[in-house]
Every structure is written in structure tokens, then in C-alpha cells.
Amino acid sequence: DTGVSQDPRHKITKRGQNVTFRCDPISEHNRLYWYRQTLGQGPEFLTYFQNEAQLEKSRLLSDRFSAERPKGSFSTLEIQRTEQGDSAMYLCASSFFAGGSYNEQFFGPGTRLTVL
Amino acid sequence: AQSVTQLGSHVSVSEGALVLLRCNYSSSVPPYLFWYVQYPNQGLQLLLKYTTGATLVKGINGFEAEFKKSETSFHLTKPSAHMSDAAEYFCAVSLTGNQFYFGTGTSLTVIP
Questions:
Q1: Digits of tens for pLDDT over chain A (116 positions)?
Q2: In angstroms, rounded to a whole number, what is the distance separating the alpha carbons of residues B64 and B52?
Q3: Dist. CA B89–CA B11, nearest whole Å
Q4: Please, are residues A84 and A15 in contact by the beta-carbon 8 Å criterion?
Q5: I want to staple A69 with a disulfide (CB 3.0 to 4.6 A). Which of A49, A63, B74, B93 is the partner?
């Protein structure tokens, strides 16, 4: 399967702990996106990368959140000092941007975070 | 500012009946519009999209949607519901094709 993969699929942690999620995009895709989805809501944009450059961040992305894509391939999303409000599904998507104004995003299955 | 409103968080239809899921958008300029489907424990899958051109867009699994600028709507339809259509459906809008704004979703139940 050459789709977007995310690891882990589920994470349970205690409040105050740090967690890190990984996303592996479709191999030829140069853009990578992170979203957060809470119960009963649609995905909310967090940030996106083009290659290794982080081009846009939502104001939802507090100082406790950091994302990296060091080699322009996989990406990590770290949450420091987790809070119960961080409990959500974290979705990753990737796309191939070749100029123009639209590029289809392909989503991974998500990482479900539960903060106790 | 861009946003979408999905009317009806839960919709139930009988198998074989028409499916109509409503989406209205708010945007200062004509946006890109999308419908995604999400099955349990799976990622979002693109059903169809409107970028430019023909306002009636056909997607996968027999779904289609019509972009109506005068009504700022992009409703999703399927003539005959199938049991396998039961899922969560999300409408999304984007001005740039990069940052997407999703609606709150509509859960579709198909009654045998």
C-alpha cells in the first residue's frame, strides 16, 4: 500500500506527558499537512509543509505543538505537556504541488490521542 | 473568511432512496469545494471536487454535486442509496487549494 501512513494509530498518555506522532506521506508528494479532528467536528487545519519548509501554521497550533519535516519526507508532530483538551484524532495528508492552484490531498488513517 | 455549514448532522434514508446532503459555503470569492467521505477507522477519501468549469460535478460511487453560486451551495446527491454508503460525509472549502476548512460533518445512515 503506497498511501499515507501514520504511527501510532492510537496513543494514550497522562496529562503533562509529551507525545510524538509520525506521518509518512505518499513518496512523490512534496506537501504534507496536519489536521486535528475532535468528536463531532470536521478536521481543523494545523500546519503544512512544502518539502522541509513549514509554510503555514494555524493559530490553533499553540506553543506546545511543534511539527517538523527535516528531510522533506516524513513528518513528526510533537505535543509537549499534553492537556485533556488535546485529546483528538490527528490527521496527516499529503499532496503533490507542481504549480497551479489546486492539489488533491490524500489523507492517512489518523492517530487517535487520548489524554487521561 | 471561508467556512462551510452542513445542515443536518444526521441523515437517514432507506436503501434505494435519494441521498441529499446539504452544504452551504461562505467565501468572498468563488472557492474550491470538496466532499469527503470517512468510514470508521479510515482516513478521509475524496468523493468529488469543484475547482473551475462545469458546475455539476460527478464523483465516485455514483455521487454528484452542483455548485450554485447564487445560493452559495454545494449539495451532495446520489439517486439511490446503498448500504455501503453509510459513513460520515464532510464538505470542505478552500480558496488557495492548500488550507481547507471543513464542515462539522453529516452522518449518513442507510436503512435496509
A1: 579 999 999 999 999 999 999 999 999 899 999 999 998 889 999 999 999 999 989 887 889 999 999 988 999 999 999 999 999 999 999 998 887 666 788 999 999 999 99
A2: 15
A3: 10
A4: yes
A5: A49
Contact B9, B107 (CB under 8 A): yes
Is the minimum CB–CB distance between A70 and chain B shorter than 8 Å? no
* CA dist., res. A94 & res. B60, Å (int): 20
Pick from A4, A45, A104: which is nearest to B46 by CB?
A104
Query: Based on the number of CB atoms within 10 Å of its own CB, is B58 exposed (0-12), middle (13-18) or buried (19 or more)?
Result: exposed
Selecting from A45, A100, A107 the residue whose C-beta is nearest the C-beta of B99 gives A45
On whether the CB atoms of residues A84 and A64 are closer than 8 A, the answer is no
